[in-house]
């Protein structure tokens, strides 16, 4: 791991991380650093270890080898500080469909120790950011899939994390909604300085200029900008680069 000052500048620093489920390895010596305001695509097919990595960062799982720091804070030894700096949107939606958008966010604020007024104020700021302030009184059940995902992102940002983890956030969305969500996450990086780690198996969610971390069977096979990766491997497309890296046996979807 780097020196303390460098570590504090990094939103996420994972070093030499390994994890196994009942003796079956799921992550093998993974190291990855994400800077403030950076957008990194964690690209890997089903079973690559993406969700496992997120579970370790958020400490849903804990027995592992290696280090994880958020904004310079060790997730195990400085758990409170580290966790205050993480926002997460998991694969499975977790909004209460029978509550309004604002009620869902207010509940999240209360869990983070915010007063009711403070939670509502912060919720409104984030809902404006995702373009849903005018829907704040709407019951979540009445929103589209894309709108629900944006509400989850707004909720994940209420406590002003440095790092936003998004695990396959576009599952079940149509192409236009997927594109909107990808664009929205990029804007968050640029405008709010939030670091985003976006896990997906969909190559078409990688945009020009994105850094791509390719995870396969628990190992990080590449970590560089898409253009650098294709040039290094002497191929035209990221799809070809992916095939080359994983031996052409398993492909991420285009
Ligand atoms: N709770 C669990 N118990 C045992 N094995 C697990 C468990 N969760 C995941 N695994 C295994 O660990 C490996 C990594 O799974 P993981 O869910 O992290 O991959 P993923 O990249 O997120 O895949 P997906 O895109 O399908 O969500 C796989 O081989 C999977 O079968």
TrEMBL record:
Signal peptide: none annotated. It comes from the Bacteria. Keywords: ATP-binding, Nodulation, Nucleotide-binding, Transport. InterPro entries: AAA+_ATPase, ABC_transporter-like_ATP-bd, ABC_transporter-like_CS, ABC_transporter_ATP-binding, ABC_transprt_ATP-bd_su_PQQ, P-loop_NTPase. It holds the Pfam family ABC_tran. GO terms for molecular function: ATP binding. CDD domains: ABC_DR_subfamily_A (cd03230). Residues 12-242 form the ABC transporter domain. Gene3D superfamilies: P-loop containing nucleotide triphosphate hydrolases. Belongs to the ABC transporter superfamily. This is ATP-binding cassette domain-containing protein. It comes from Billgrantia ethanolica.
